[in-house]
Design goal:
The complex is a heterodimer of chains A (471) and B (180). Helix content of chain A is 22%, strand content 36%. With 471 residues, chain A is α/β, with parallel strands linked by helices. Chain A has one domain. In chain A, the strands form two sheets. Chain A has a ten-stranded mixed beta sheet with strand order 2-1-5-8-10-12-14-16-18-20, with helices on one face. In chain A, strands 3, 4, 6, 7, 9, 11, 13, 15, 17 and 19 form a ten-stranded mixed beta sheet that branches. Chain B has 180 residues and is an alpha/beta fold. Chain B is 48% helix and 18% strand. In chain B, strands 1-4-5 form a three-stranded parallel beta sheet. A two-stranded antiparallel ribbon of chain B has the order 2-3. In chain B, strands 6-7 form a two-stranded antiparallel ribbon. In chain B, α4 packs parallel to α5. Chain B starts with a helix and ends with a helix. Classes of the chains: A alpha/beta (471), B alpha/beta (180). Chains A and B meet through α8 and α9 of A and α1, β2, α2 and α3 of B.
Amino acid sequence: MDGTIITTYNTRDALLKLYEEKGGSIGKHDSTRIAALRKEGIGLFSQKGFPHTKLEKWRNTDLSKVLNHSYSFPLEAETGEVDFEEVFKCDVPGFDTFMVAQLNGKFIDRGKIISQAGQGVVVCSLAEAFNKYPELIEKHFGKYAPVAENSLTALNTAFARDGVFIYVPDNISVTETVQMVNLIHSGDPVFLQTRNLVILGRNSSLRLVQCDDSVDDQIGFINSVTEAVIGENSSLDHYKLQNKNDRSALINNIYFHLEASAVLSTNAISLNGGLIRNEANVKLNGRGAHADILGVYLMDRNQHIDNQVFVDHAQPDCTSNEMFKGILDDHASGVFNGHILVRRDAQRTNAYQNNKNILISDKAVIDTKPFLEIYADDVKCSHGATVGQLDTEALFYLRSRGIGMENARMLLMYAFAAEIVNRISIPQLRIRIDDLVKKRLRGELSICDQCVLHCNAREQKVAFEIDLSRI
Amino acid sequence: MPIEDRASEGIFLGFQYPVEIPGVSITNFMRTAVNEQRKYHGLDPIPANEFLAKMEEKKQMLEITAKLANRSVNEGFSGGEKKKNEIFQMAMLEPSLAILDETDSGLDIDALKIVANGVNKLRRPDNAFVVITHYQRLLDYIVPDIVHVLFDGRIVRSGGKELAFELEEKGYEWIKASLA
């Protein structure tokens, strides 16, 4: 297979040239529909290019700096010298996951098979799925991530080649938690486009943890797209953990599609990252569907976090609940954009949205924008956004018990984030994240050479009081 | 002197309106506070089991039955629960001087008894309590050694516990009148 490396500062032109040369081999297993979709994607990208700050949706997130590097675009990752078992070792106590690893965007087949494979559960690479499950690919791929509206999704669709494919048939509850670890480990600045597809049939359930990590401090740009379709009466419990170096950019577009009575809980936990943009698109496409869209971000230095949430209430009797909380220090900047669309037929919609922020320094910035677009008349829809400092009365109260200023601030920041962390329904994961948040607030969390969950290995003594009630 | 150092030196303030702090559990809060005060005095942190035993002991002493440990500090507490929590914190921190600012306001009679009982049980020859109140009722349960009457920020009259009874009977007007 071809390992192509092109180096240039004009990322857009480089990508277009790459597609011209390699497009044929990328799409060699394509159906007519998908071939047309790729063509449409690259056409749109060629026309629109990368998003820029003149676009309303990108007003506060500037990609120009992170794009101004000489990226290489590995279509095949070099995986020779890496000890996978070492890199992807999971040592979270009691946290048994079925781990699927991606290194530099390439799915690593570690020969492991999910225990419910006999019942039809599939976890494999997207490339493999194109060969083995063409009817599922044909039915779902590209159906939920519209290329027309988003040039990055269009670009990803054109190049989509590898990533994770998960299929859960009807009436199956997947007992193992599937953990997707996406590591970047490369000598060169890499530009990657991963693509994932998650399909849940009816009456099924899945817990999915998506980890994005850096191994080194090399520059990287990830343009990731995930499509997740949740069938009737099924549930998806989804977590995104982001702990990346300050020179990395991560664009995470997720398209959730919920059928009747489906339940989604998605939680984005951003601990570190140079530039992170999470776009969660949730389409409630059947009666009685429910979505919880949660997020917590802890940013400092010059880090930038952008959470874009779009909830599309397309059918009646659906409920959605958004809650994002963030703490920004130093020169960090944040964006929250919450768009709720209630279509004309979506009567008895109940939608809630909230974004709360604490700015620690006067140089930190948050742009938060609720946007409700309602066309039905029997609707309960509310939103709130706050930007503030730490509660001075609460600080005084804590200090009056002998707790020093620094620890009092830490306790309050931790408490602020805890509201989201406490919603994590996998207990071992909750404890781990809880710990990571504490470390992050103390400035003790750095990017690890393993998955974000593995920090245990090089754990420093944590002076912060661990909540005994959880032990 | 910063307030945290005053606390470590042994001063405790029981708030009239304790603040709600969502997300901070009482266990975590108290353990941090106890350890910070220990650190101030050059002591090592209290071992976890010892701390939990101490929490249990103080709860029993104060006849607090509620499951405090997992709850956030004062969050969703009733007026009475908040005040009981203040007394519980006082019991945990063992101050040498406790100032209770209108601890009796907004309390029902059962909560008042628990609060007063707590103060009485914590009373030792080597510590002191300043109880700020407008009513004689609390003093039925906490019998004061000395009563001071404050007016315009000054102590205008001092006496034994009889002074409180006299005030209850006559009101404050006669003191104001006698000052004029």
